[in-house]
């Protein structure tokens, strides 16, 4: 089984994926996390990636395909995986279909629906642990000690460079233009569940689990 989480920046894809990992014991593949880790290593090509990501722009198609292909070919993905941030274009969705067909994995797509105004304030308050990637929020998901990761208390939480209103506008535009067609594509093939991504994090998690389990029972 492959669970795909789709939603605008700040929809809660990473937050929900981390909870689903615990529930379904599948690996979490976040293309954003993979590229953020890559960009920490200085080199000319990586500097380019860092610039694109900080500007809120999508990364080159070929590179994204290579990285995803390599990651999902690993042993831990044999029984499936949870995708967060991929696919976000029709080309990427076509690639995923061809890979999952050959592996005979069923693809379940969850769209987290969150209005732009909510996304804006969520990203303003987002903080991350630079070690484990745990996601916090200064108003909706506070760490035990302000500015410190619960799991790595000596480490200060950080902000993502692209989490500001100007870059958010660029990211939302790409989402509208490039990812909305992906949503329609999955809708037409009956694989999409649209969920309200606002409200309590655990209630949203329960709804995702209910949907996934209902699909597994029906297959
Ligand atoms: P990526 O990392 O995928 O960023 P994104 O899609 O913009 O999504 P975010 O990570 O910002 O939001 P999220 O939905 O994960 O929300 P979160 O759970 O953190 O991609 C980054 C960049 O990498 C791209 O811009 C591009 O450059 C590149 N890239 C990645 N994939 C690519 C691809 N396929 N093709 C090309 N380029 C690619 O939650 C947000 C905040 O809200 C947190 O503070 C959280 O605590 C809080 N929160 C979550 N849920 C709730 C809730 N229910 N109520 C209240 N607060 C909540
Ligand atoms: Mg994320």
Q: Which terms would index this structure?
A:
single chain, 219 residues, Rossmann fold, five-stranded parallel beta sheet, globular, binds BIS(adenosine)-5'-pentaphosphate, binds magnesium ion
Question: How does this structure look, described?
Answer:
- It is a single chain.
- The protein has a single domain, classed as P-loop containing nucleotide triphosphate hydrolases (Rossmann fold, 3-Layer(aba) Sandwich).
- The chain has helices spanning 13-24, 31-39, 44-54, 61-72, 90-103, 116-125, 165-188, 201-217, and strands at 2-6, 28-30, 81-84, 107-113, 126-128, 135-137, 192-196.
- The protein is of the alpha/beta class and 219 residues long.
- The strands form two sheets. It has a five-stranded parallel sheet with strand order 2-3-1-4-7, sandwiched between helices. A two-stranded antiparallel sheet has the order 5-6.
- Helix content is 50%, strand content 14%.
- The mean pLDDT is 94.
- A hairpin with a 6-residue loop joins strand 5 and strand 6.
- It contains eight helices and seven strands; from the N terminus they run βαβαααβαβαββαβα.
- BIS(adenosine)-5'-pentaphosphate (AP5) is lined by residues 7, 9-15, 31-32, 35, 52-53, 56-59, 64, 85-86, 88, 92, 122, 125-126, 135-137, 140-141, 171, 199, 201, 204.
By DSSP (H or I, 4+ residues per run), the number of helices equals 8
Strand order of the largest sheet: 2-3-1-4-7
What small molecules accompany the polymer chains? BIS(adenosine)-5'-pentaphosphate, magnesium ion
Structurally, how many domains make up the residues? 1
CATH superfamily: P-loop containing nucleotide triphosphate hydrolases
* Unreliable parts: none
Output the structural class. alpha/beta
Radius of gyration: 17 Å
CATH class: Alpha Beta
> What's the CATH topology name?
Rossmann fold
Largest sheet: 5 strands, parallel
Gross morphology: globular
Order of helices and strands: EHEHHHEHEHEEHEH
> What share of residues are in beta strands?
5-15%
- Give the N-to-C terminal Cα separation: 11 Å
What's the overall average pLDDT, rounded?
A: 94
Tell how many strands the DSSP assignment holds: 7
Percent of residues in helices: 40-55%
State the CATH architecture. 3-Layer(aba) Sandwich
């Amino acid at each position: 089984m492959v669970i795909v989480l789709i939603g605008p920046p700040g929809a809660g894809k990473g937050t929900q994926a981390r909870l689903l990992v615990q529930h379904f014991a599948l690996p979490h593949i976040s293309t954003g996390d993979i590229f953020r880790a890559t960009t920490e290593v200085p080199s000319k090509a990586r500097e380019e990636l860092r610039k694109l990501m900080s500007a809120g722009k999508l990364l080159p198609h070929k590179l994204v395909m290579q990285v995803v292909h390599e990651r999902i070919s690993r042993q831990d993905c044999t029984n499936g995986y949870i995708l967060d941030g991929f696919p976000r274009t029709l080309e990427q969705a076509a690639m995923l279909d061809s890979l999952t067909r050959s592996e005979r994995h069923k693809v379940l797509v969850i769209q987290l629906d969150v209005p732009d105004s909510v996304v804006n304030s969520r990203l303003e308050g987002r903080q991350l642990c630079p070690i484990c990637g745990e996601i916090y929020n200064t108003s909706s998901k506070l760490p035990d000690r302000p500015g410190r990761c619960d799991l790595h208390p000596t480490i200060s939480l950080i902000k993502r460079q692209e989490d500001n209103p100007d870059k958010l506008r660029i990211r939302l535009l790409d989402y509208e233009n490039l990812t909305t067609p992906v949503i329609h594509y999955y809708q037409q093939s009956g694989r999409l569940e649209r969920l309200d991504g606002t409200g309590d994090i655990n209630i949203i998690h329960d709804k995702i689990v209910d949907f996934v389990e209902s699909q597994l029972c029906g297959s």
